[in-house]
Write a structure and sequence with these properties.
The chain is of the alpha+beta class. The protein has a single domain, classed as archaeoglobus fulgidus dsm 4304 fold (2-Layer Sandwich). It contains 6 helices and 9 strands. It has helices spanning 57-66, 92-99, 113-121, 126-135, 154-164, 172-186; strands spanning 13-19, 29-38, 41-51, 76-80, 83-84, 88-89, 103-107, 140-142, 145-150. Helix 1 (57-66) runs parallel beside helix 2 (92-99) and helix 3 (113-121) runs antiparallel to helix 4 (126-135). It is globular.
Length: 193
């Protein structure tokens, strides 16, 4: 996915993905929600499931988006962290290539990499998952959040955040995906994705 050098692309149609709440002790699948927005207006919802601590998140997100009626319009994908369902780590570069769209990981705080690496040591496929995290590059502060871009420059990432953030610092597609996932799984939603 080439980055347009010297030109800041404008992104108006975006899909944001987040997982639903789950018990650390649970096994099996975890709810995954995609909120499709035109800037800050919700246009649609995608739902699926990913394996808790599994390895299917990249393929599942790509399939959900490609099979949706929103696929022709979505210009970028936002992720609420680089993993869903615990440690089901998303290969953001592969996802950007598969979808032929930029991907931007957004987090409120920088990751605690030592704790993550230690936790991954105890999981099957943990070394591969750690390599995906390293390959994604360091999270960078931008506009009050931390980001990892794949297929877009930091200037484009800033423009994407500005176009999709209504209040606070978290882009609306991620905030909405978080609220929808929480409401579906638990029957009620809470803010602070």
């Amino acid at each position: 996915m080439p980055v347009w050098r010297g030109v800041v692309r404008s992104f108006s149609n975006v899909a944001g993905f987040d997982d639903g709440p789950f018990s650390r002790a649970s096994r099996g699948d975890v709810m995954l929600v995609g909120a499709v927005c035109a800037r800050t207006r919700l246009d649609g919802v995608l739902t699926g499931r990913v394996r808790k601590d599994g390895a299917n998140a990249t393929a599942r997100i790509a399939t959900l988006l490609r099979a949706s009626p929103f696929a022709p319009h979505v210009q970028a994908v936002l992720l609420n962290g680089i993993a869903v369902g615990g440690f089901n780590v998303i290969d953001i570069n592969a996802l950007a290539q598969q979808l032929e769209r930029p991907v931007l990981v957004v987090a409120r705080r920088p990751p605690r990499l030592q704790l993550i690496q230690r936790a991954l040591r105890s999981l099957p496929g943990g070394a591969r998952k750690w390599r995906l995290i390293e390959r994604a590059g360091p999270m960078q502060p931008l506009g009050g959040v931390y980001v990892q871009p794949a297929g877009l420059s930091l200037a484009e990432a800033r423009a994407l955040l500005e176009a999709t953030t209504l209040q606070g610092k978290l882009p609306e597609p991620l905030r909405l995906a978080h609220l929808i996932a929480g409401g579906v799984v638990t029957g009620t939603s809470r803010g602070r994705a």
